[in-house]
Design a protein that fits this description.
Helix content of chain B: 40-55%
Largest interface: A-B, 42 and 36 residues
Protein name (chain B): Tryptophan synthase beta chain
CATH topology of the largest domain in chain B: Rossmann fold
Organism (chain B): Flagellimonas zhangzhouensis
Oligomer: heterodimer
Structural class of chain A: alpha/beta
Radius of gyration of chain B: 19 Å
CATH class of the largest domain in chain B: Alpha Beta
Function (chain B): The beta subunit is responsible for the synthesis of L-tryptophan from indole and L-serine.
Number of strands of chain B: 14
CATH architecture of chain A: Alpha-Beta Barrel
Number of strands of chain A: 9
Structural class of chain B: alpha/beta
GO molecular function, one term (chain B): tryptophan synthase activity
Bound molecules: pyridoxal-5'-phosphate
Family (chain B): Belongs to the TrpB family.
Order of helices and strands of chain A: HEHEHHEHHEHEEHEHEHEHH
Chain lengths: 253, 393
Amino acid sequence: MNRIKQKLSEDKKILSIYFTAGYPKLDDTVQIIQDLEKSGVDLIEIGLPFSDPLADGPTIQESSTAALKNGMHTELLFEQIKDIRKSVSIPLILMGYFNPVLQYGVEKFCQKCEEIGIDGLILPDLPLDVYQEEYEALFKKHRLINVFLITPQTSDERIKAIDDASEGFIYMVSSASTTGAKSGFGEEQSSYFQRISNMQLKNPQIVGFGISNAETFNQATEKTKGAIIGSAFIKHLTENGVDSIGGFVSQIR
Amino acid sequence: MSYHADEKGYYGEFGGAFIPEMLYPNCEELRQNYIQIMEEPSFKQEFQQLLKDYVGRPTPLYFAKRLSEKFNTKIYLKREDLCHTGAHKVNNTIGQILMAKKLGKHRIIAETGAGQHGVATATVCALMGIECVVYMGEIDIARQAPNVARMKMLGAEVRAAKSGSKTLKDATNEAIRDWINNPVDTHYIIGSVVGPHPYPDMVARFQSVISEEIKSQLLEKEDRENPDYVVACVGGGSNAAGAFYHYLDTPEVGIIAVEAAGKGIHSGESAATSALGKVGIIHGSKTLLMQTADGQITEPYSISAGLDYPGVGPMHAHLYKSGRGEFISITDDEAMQAGLELCKLEGIIPAIESSHALAIFEDRKFKEDDVVVVNLSGRGDKDLQNYIDYFKL
Ligand SMILES: Cc1ncc(COP(=O)(O)O)c(C=O)c1O
């Protein structure tokens, strides 16, 4: 069974952490993954940096720019994590924009992911219809779960279509925003969380964007399966480097 | 073969809407409504009235006698430089501001490189009394001060894009991010035939007035609707799309797209996308773009800020790939000389973008009785400092 599905079947809230590969330092990737697993995180999203990350706010943008400047690229990331399954068993998702994947070759990319033991992909600018027409068979062949996003503006009809196309979980963007743009949840989010919960989707939902601490983690997971922290973790890495990852995670739960 | 967008916004293999889900409702609202709105009589009437009374259309089709003599062929100039605000850009912003009103939007955002599209957007927002925010790369703000001042005088807020390379592509990223954060009340006026579907098709339709006019004007002057060639410079490709539009499916009309070679195609400082680009995704569109082997988008270079974009619109990628269009690239030096030559021969100071289109005659020869229409996309006022620096005037 795919590690993501295995993890989702456990009776607990999921804490997922995003980081940008190649940041703060080019060779930090493996240590960050190992330390996150040790700290009790449930799922890791490894960000493949891109020159033009248009769904991301300043924090993740800056980490991407820095990572590229450090020399990160697709082949190097694969090289860095080629033996990662010897040391960790946590589910791993690669998250990035579609263009670098397209240039690497989508088939070759999927093959490489399977070899290494990557469990899923999040490619925010690969739209649902293109995925279904051109890539779904390929992703499935290489046992990769493709994760789709929904937002407060996504219509019920489209949420159902996304739910049908998903296996694993749905990435629920907490508000109309880029990453790291807002913090804290209000009335609007509560009613959105409630609305989605009422839809009784077949896939569990994990909330992302705007989660930075124990309070927002608890709010976000009240009606959902879990939450993703990105910008807040990147900020932590910027300020503290990679030596106190356990400390960051223990503040969340 | 069709050279127009299909229902999903594809021109051959290029186009589409490669957008994150956060943008889906915005683009979908536009996609479902744009054609219908453009075909409403009240929309058409208002659009045409403004093009006539406010923009100053139709722009003349001028027979450039001395230029024609020099190159021994018949050269006509489509005078988009005489549009209000000094370039073709305003045709699109007039159309889109009316579209935004029909969609009930209260706030406009735009990106700009040189500032021409920013000025054209600020202008129509002032005209309609709508709030306007223009994103501009921090580096461009410094090098295009007069246009920044114009936008401010017109009541727009100019926000510096400080991410990435701090130029046009980053200003576009920032505008898209703004749209993600303001999905309901805001309309994004893209300045060229780029971006996700339906933008390339919508902008091309608004600009198509250029070739519509060329047809009737040429009929009057030459007793024929079709020239032998239409020539236009390509940054994102909107003035070219407008000049080519009604000739796309007329194979007798040769289509010539002119890109900026900068300091030379292989100098590492160029914006010649058709020569240097590979298929990829930029700003939500699958097209030809300049990028590293790893798929990172690279920074182009041209002396002309309006041609300094790392991609081309999907229509042009398709024209290139299918062979329908002839693509020529022109260096900074060639363009500057051609610009100065037009001043001396015809008394017209062209925008440096347009000078690229004029520069092809040195090497690309035409028959004596060929009718060649060059789209003179803009005037050179905005480029005065560049001309001064280059020619040490
Ligand atoms: C005068 C002029 N011509 C051409 C362009 C290039 O844009 P496009 O290729 O969309 O026509 C610009 C852009 O700023 C411009 O100002």
